[in-house]
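User: Thanks for the earlier help. One more: Lon protease 2. Can you show the sequence and predicted structure together?

Assistant: Of course, both are below.
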Amino acid sequence: MPMISSTDLPETIPVFPLPGALLLPRSRLPLHLFEPRYLAMLDDVMKTSSRLIGMVQPYDAPGAAGKLHSIGCAGKLTAFSETEDGRYMITLSGASRFRIVEEVEGFTPYRRCKVNWNGFSRDLGPVEKDENFDRDSFMKALNRFLVDHGLSTDWDSLSEAEDELLINSLSMLCPFTPEDKQALLEAPSLSTRRETLLTLMEYSLRGGNGEGVMQ
């Protein structure tokens, strides 16, 4: 059963512009909140029935300060805890992508947008399958990517993960640019996202290098 139905999707939601932070339907994104405006957003979201926050990528181009990509993904607040220094650790569970219609002017310190949910009905449906997934060749490419970037991960968990969990988790965790993350978000199907992910990994293998650990 979906965690939220189409009738529960509000017309206006708060948005959290965070470069490189990708949320996908049926995936979970942990976040640290500490800025006063986002603590105010959290307080207001807790009072709503939907408890939705929209994650959206801001444009990174010169002269595009404050401009948001038109497509984001809303997540339902499903867990939160307060740290000793007044920060909040929260978890958003991906509900549905949306398209921004317009930004709503108002008195809140955080940004809010009027959104349209049309065209993303599969986000509220069952877990997606990737019927043409060649897992063996994909995992070989993934291994080359991880080695090349000095990344480590729980290989056993990845190998056993279902198609959607594997592809979406890698899309969220791999060190791609915000624009690449946006391309992964906008992929119309799981198979298209997998193809995009593979293309990005292969492109990366022909260029730059990085270091880090995938949790």
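User: Great, one quick takeaway?

Assistant: Confidence is low (pLDDT under 50) at residues 209-215.
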